[in-house]
Amino acid sequence: MANEGRSTTVTIKYGRGHDDSWAVFRGSPVEVRKDITDFFSLDGNSVASLSLHELVVEAGQIAQSTTTVVKGLNAQIVPQTTPEPTAAGKAAEATPAAAQSTVSAVLEQIAACKNTDELRRLWATNQTAFGDQAVMDVWKARGRALKGS
């Protein structure tokens, strides 16, 4: 295969200065995508539709936003807590199928929004669905895409 041995290198900077941290990812595009998704604790399903380029932009925004908050507000990073496996399993079992179909409907509505005002109205009228991090991630990505067009 022509692409064997070929690798991709992505550098994500945490700020504009040379002294700011960098995260460097090397490997095949598939490996780099997985590494970035894991490194930034992103939900793989919510970023699956993004190209590698878009994922790198998203990760760069997360990295630079984190640096801005830490430096600008003199904040500290708080370790992410994970729920106990049994609690997470019970919560997943308790989720009704109706809630899943609501999420699917909201995701379709997000994709159909033609401007940021429509996105804001959708968010305002569907607060419950936006409690799902995957929905929120898709909503943010759509907002950035609309601002860029």
How many helices?
7
Low-confidence stretches: none
Instruction: Summarize the main sheet.
Output: 2 strands, antiparallel
Strand runs, count = 2
| Total number of domains | 2
Q: Whole-number radius of gyration?
A: 18 Å
- List the strand order in the largest sheet: 1-2
Q: End-to-end distance, in Å?
A: 37 Å
Q: Which percent range describes the beta-strand content?
A: 5-15%
Order of helices and strands: EEHHHHHHH
How would you describe the overall organization of this protein?
The protein is built from seven helices and two strands; from the N terminus they run E-E-H-H-H-H-H-H-H. It is mainly alpha-helical and 149 residues long. The chain folds into two domains: 1-81, no CATH class; 82-149, no CATH class. A hairpin with an 8-residue loop joins strand 1 and strand 2. Helix 1 (29-39) runs parallel beside helix 3 (52-72) and helix 5 runs parallel beside helix 7. The model has no long low-confidence stretch (mean pLDDT 81).
Strand-helix topology:
Layout: E1 8-13, E2 22-27, H1 29-39, H2 44-47, H3 52-72, H4 85-94, H5 97-112, H6 116-125, H7 133-148
Antiparallel strand pairs: 1-2
Helix pairs in contact: 1-3, 5-7
